[in-house]
Amino acid sequence: MNFHTRKWIKPEDLNPNGTLFGGRYWNGLMRKQRFML
């Protein structure tokens, strides 16, 4: 599960601005990722 999330959760590869899913939504994902990592 962790490796799978790591694969698609990469703001640098997708969007540097983090607006792919929406600024707020993306910010929430990154926040969750921090705890996961």
TrEMBL record:
Keywords: Hydrolase. This is Cytosolic long-chain acyl-CoA thioester hydrolase family protein. The lineage of its organism: Bacteria, Pseudomonadati, Bacteroidota, Flavobacteriia, Flavobacteriales. GO terms for molecular function: hydrolase activity. It comes from Nonlabens ulvanivorans (Persicivirga ulvanivorans). The keyword Hydrolase applies.
